[in-house]
Amino acid sequence: MTDTIRANGSATPASTKDRVLIFDTTLRDGEQCPGATMTFEEKLEIAELLDTMGVDIIEAGFPIASEGDFEAVSEIARRSKRSTIAGLARAITADIARAGEAVRHAGRPRIHTFVSTSPIHLEHQMRKTQDEVLEIITRTVAQARNLVEDVEWSAMDATRTPLDYLCRATEAAIRAGATTINLPDTVGYATPDEYRMMFASVRERVPNADKAIFSAHCHNDLGLAVANSLAAIEGGARQVECTLNGIGERAGNAALEEVVMALRVRGDVLPYDTGIDATMLMRASKTVSNACSFPVQYNKAIVGRNAFAHESGIHQDGMLKNQSTYEIMTPASVGVTKTSLVMGKHSGRAAFRSKLKEMGYDLGDNQLEDAFTRFKALADRKKHVYDEDIEALVDDNIATAHDRVKLVSLTVIAGTRGPQRATMKLDVEGRIVTEEVEGNGPIDAIFNAIKTIVPHEASLELYDVHAVTEGTDAQAEVTVRLTHEGFSVTGRGADPDTLVSSAKAYLVALNKLMAKGVRLHAQAAAE
Ligand SMILES: CC(=O)SCCNC(=O)CCNC(=O)[C@H](O)C(C)(C)COP(=O)(O)OP(=O)(O)OC[C@H]1O[C@@H](n2cnc3c(N)ncnc32)[C@H](O)[C@@H]1OP(=O)(O)O
Ligand SMILES: CC(C)C(=O)C(=O)O
């Protein structure tokens, strides 16, 4: 039966694909990344999430490392429901005993023991010969196997180990009882082809290879961790070791969410299943990020905040027509609420119109065109254009559509050496009038200039400024209330320049007064 994977990432239910086990080491290798230490409670919370989302093996810690690690591994083992719980141990009797003690409470306990196999490590770190290490492997794997049925053995620095010796070490580990053989790219050195070939060769050359499951564990020093993990699967690995958000020693490990979604989305060329409920990925990523105070980079695949955000007009237009134009999986398939079309300088009319509709505005073609021009001008000056910015400029736009007095330009000289001076150019019903006026402060100068061009007796009841959006380039929204002859009107103006928004707000209020038929000198001036 052919199993299909749809582009939105959902697998057909009856799968006949090979199963790849997901071994999560967020709590062990992940915690090894500088600054990522997690508390006991945070580890329990993460382990519970991993168990619920279908992680096959949770490496809960390195029990000999500290009393805290031992306690965390023991408690996670006690609370585990479906997942196998692994504890890491060096090829040292005391480490293995401690790991065995910590995981024994689990329904499915595993001891994961490791030793170096590469010449560099043997010479400089272990200071042992190859034969001595072979003897250590046989002894320590057997010790672990006496404690638990499920023993994983890792050849630390496998990718810098001569193939012959790697095969001999693997054979010895399986003979001593290892049920999983992990061949890590400890220093992130391998390329995908090399890593795939290494698995294929070891599995072919080691006589008892079929007695163990082979596992990949990749570091990201060259940014190849996920690619190498997928290559390992093609070489015969059926367990992938990874971490949420790809955290881990140095540049980190293969990211669980990327491995899982690569297998899900590209099932056509990688026909393998995992047991992961991918809709929990976003939540799990956030939990880990919060626990270790490690922000997720914006453009991180799958769980970065831009992973389902589109800013450019052409992409947004495509997305509005059909999501498959620019998304290879749905946000829902990884637990992200929705795609976002971010309004910015690269956005086009299609997205702008859709955004306005979503915000409840129904503008005619001319108004829309006008608002779009102003939006582009704003987006050129401002890094983030929020909904509130758009709201402010559209309100401003609607209000000014029938204005009799319009702002043409404004220049203000302000600073410590007063008096402040405003040079204002207004379009008064088609007539351009310019005045340069002083004031007690820049706002006073601006309002005096308006009064000079459009004489009136309305009094200023309220002047209020607030930032509509965040940052030093935030839109300033100014509210002005004018009263005259019992009429009270409010005008709002928005602009990144507070002085310009003040002038706009005043003029909106003044135009409203005129629209109400209030007799101002302005009408006389304009006539
Ligand atoms: C590739 C990896 O991610 S491996 C896991 C790395 N993770 C960690 O190291 C985190 C936890 N580690 C620790 O808390 C400490 O390093 C401990 C408790 C394990 C050991 O602490 P110490 O006894 O003080 O040793 P220290 O860390 O200084 O040195 C490591 C020792 O282990 C030896 N060693 C390293 N790996 C192995 C191994 N797989 N099997 C046996 N011995 C090993 C080293 O040769 C060195 O031995 P030496 O002191 O005789 O030279
Ligand atoms: C302990 C082993 C699996 C490891 O973390 C590595 O080699 O990177």
Quickly list its features.
527 residues; alpha/beta; TIM Barrel; Double Stranded RNA Binding Domain; 3 domains; eight-stranded parallel beta barrel; three-stranded antiparallel beta sheet; 17 helices; 39% helix; elongated; binds acetyl coenzyme *A; binds 3-methyl-2-oxobutanoic acid
Strand content: 15-25%
- Overall mean pLDDT stands at 91
- Spatial shape: elongated
Radius of gyration: 33 Å
CATH superfamily assignment of the largest domain? Aldolase class I
Unreliably modeled segments:
1-13, 522-527
The strand line-up of the biggest sheet is: 2-3-4-5-6-7-8-9
CATH class descriptor of the largest domain: Alpha Beta
Catalytic activity: 3-methyl-2-oxobutanoate + acetyl-CoA + H2O = (2S)-2-isopropylmalate + CoA + H(+)
Binding site for Mn(2+): 29, 217, 219, 253
Cofactor: Mn(2+)
EC number: 2.3.3.13
Protein model, in words:
This protein has helices spanning 40-53, 67-79, 93-103, 119-126, 130-147, 163-175, 192-205, 225-234, 256-265, 281-291, 313-321, 349-358, 365-381, 387-400, 442-453, 498-515, 521-526; strands spanning 18-19, 21-24, 57-61, 84-90, 109-116, 150-156, 180-182, 213-217, 239-242, 272-273, 309-310, 340-341, 405-413, 420-428, 431-439, 459-467, 476-484, 487-495. With 527 residues, the protein is α/β, with parallel strands linked by helices. It folds into 3 domains: 21-291, Aldolase class I (TIM Barrel, Alpha-Beta Barrel); 309-398, no CATH class; 403-526, Alpha-isopropylmalate synthase LeuA, regulatory domain (Double Stranded RNA Binding Domain). The strands form 5 sheets. The chain has an 8-stranded parallel β-barrel, surrounded by 8 helices. Strands 13-14-15 form a 3-stranded antiparallel β-sheet. Helix 2 runs parallel beside helix 3 (93-103) and helix 11 (313-321) packs across helix 12. The model is unreliable at 1-13 and 522-527 (pLDDT under 50). Bound molecules: acetyl coenzyme *A and 3-methyl-2-oxobutanoic acid (KIV). Residues 29, 114, 154, 156, 182, 184, 186, 217, 219 line the site of 3-methyl-2-oxobutanoic acid. It is an enzyme of class 2 (transferase). It catalyses: 3-methyl-2-oxobutanoate + acetyl-CoA + H2O = (2S)-2-isopropylmalate + CoA + H(+). One of its GO terms (molecular function) is acetyl-CoA C-acetyltransferase activity. Pfam families: HCS_D2, HMGL-like, LeuA_dimer.
